[in-house]
Amino acid sequence: MELVYFWIEKYKNIEKQGFNFSPRFECAYDDEKNTLVINEHENHESIFPDNINVTAIVGENGSGKSSILEKISDKDTIT
Q: For the whole model, what pTM was predicted?
């Protein structure tokens, strides 16, 4: 299983924000229509084997990095 995209409606300092976790896909969420469109990049190349995906969450202090990880790990988040 691979986490491709994560939408946060409202959590701490994050509101109506989507996070793409895979360079293989382009994801867009339309909040008004409540739809998620995922398109695979046709010519995606990776230096890693197929079963490895490396993703980093970077940002300034207080930008919400820990909040994103808390929300992802929240067992009540996945529905």
A: 0.73
Do 27 and 38 form a contact (C-beta atoms < 8 A)?
A: yes
State how far the Cα of 22 lies from the Cα of 9, in Å rounded to an integer: 20
Instruction: Give dist(CA 62, CA 44) in Å, integer.
Output: 33
Q: Which residue has the tokens 């300092």?
A: 13
Return the closest-CA partner of residue 5 out of 30, 33, 26: 26
Work out the pLDDT band at 21, boundaries 50, 70, 90: confident
What DSSP assignment string belongs to 9-66? EEETTEEEEEEE--TTEEEEEETTTTEEEEEE-TT---SS-TT---------TTSSHH
| pLDDT band of 13, cuts 50, 70, 90 | confident
